[in-house]
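Action item from last meeting closed. Structure (265 res):
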């Protein structure tokens, strides 16, 4: 499902334009305030830009500016799903009914929605938690359930806004392995501060600075030859000589990789 976005938000200094190809995971990188979460909010329909246009699988999500009334689809009509830093599970529902919420809202029967939920809970390796309430889950378990809930809605575009930030360090490798497995073949925008997430999950990266795209390209190419100070600092110490990063990769080796952050391009 091709996703095309061009958007301007004057009050936040954002002016971006990019495309996500069918089945492609694109990582958005940048310092705090660079505009990453703003892009996600616009894509999800949570923030209305001053001008721009977006389409998903040929369907217009919004078309604003030019002195006309414009088109603006609400979040529930877009075919997108947002997985944020916090799981945000419904506390009054069981794990199974949390995951079944998406297909049920789309018109599936209660029985079929629960079948879909069980399938995704199994894929996320938390099927044994189906009858628990969110308050009985660890942080890592809750985030896995949140992944299952997002995918059970069968989104055309999945938006991941730093989905591992709130996890304990010990839970991150397992979550990265899960995402590596279930994101294959899906169109995804991933916001992350961790270069290992980008290496393990994204085929392409876009680097934002003060609301503008300053660097983009295949993940390993950008990381091997960074052109901006931010990317040089982010990738300092990464060893890119041993092939693609594993989803369960630990700390990067400091003995190889791109030049020091204070070095030239």
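Sequence:
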């Amino acid at each position: 499902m091709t996703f095309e976005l061009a958007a301007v938000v004057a009050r936040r200094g954002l002016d971006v334009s990019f495309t996500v190809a069918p089945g492609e995971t694109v990582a958005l990188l940048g310092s705090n305030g660079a505009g990453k979460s703003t892009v996600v909010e616009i894509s999800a329909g949570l923030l209305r830009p001053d001008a721009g246009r977006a389409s998903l699988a040929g369907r217009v999500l919004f078309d604003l500016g030019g002195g006309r009334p414009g088109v603006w689809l609400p979040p529930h009509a877009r075919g997108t799903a947002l997985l944020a830093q916090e799981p945000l599970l419904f506390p009054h529902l069981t794990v199974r009914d949390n995951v079944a919420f998406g297909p049920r809202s789309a018109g599936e029967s209660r029985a079929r929605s629960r079948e879909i939920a069980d399938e995704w809970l199994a894929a996320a390796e938390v099927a044994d938690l189906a009858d628990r309430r969110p308050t009985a889950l660890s942080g890592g378990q809750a985030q896995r359930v949140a992944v299952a809930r997002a995918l059970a809605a069968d989104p055309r575009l999945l938006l991941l806004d730093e989905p591992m930030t709130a996890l304990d360090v010990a839970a991150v490798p397992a979550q990265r392995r899960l995402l590596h497995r279930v994101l294959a073949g899906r169109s995804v925008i991933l916001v992350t501060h961790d270069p290992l997430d980008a290496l393990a999950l994204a085929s392409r990266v876009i680097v934002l600075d003060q609301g503008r795209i300053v660097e983009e390209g295949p993940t390993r190419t950008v990381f091997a030859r960074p052109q901006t100070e931010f990317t040089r600092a982010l990738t300092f110490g990464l060893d890119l000589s041993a092939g693609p990063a594993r989803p369960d990769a630990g700390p990067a080796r400091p003995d190889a990789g791109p030049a020091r952050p204070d070095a030239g391009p």
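Note appended to the action item: The longest strand covers residues 3-9.
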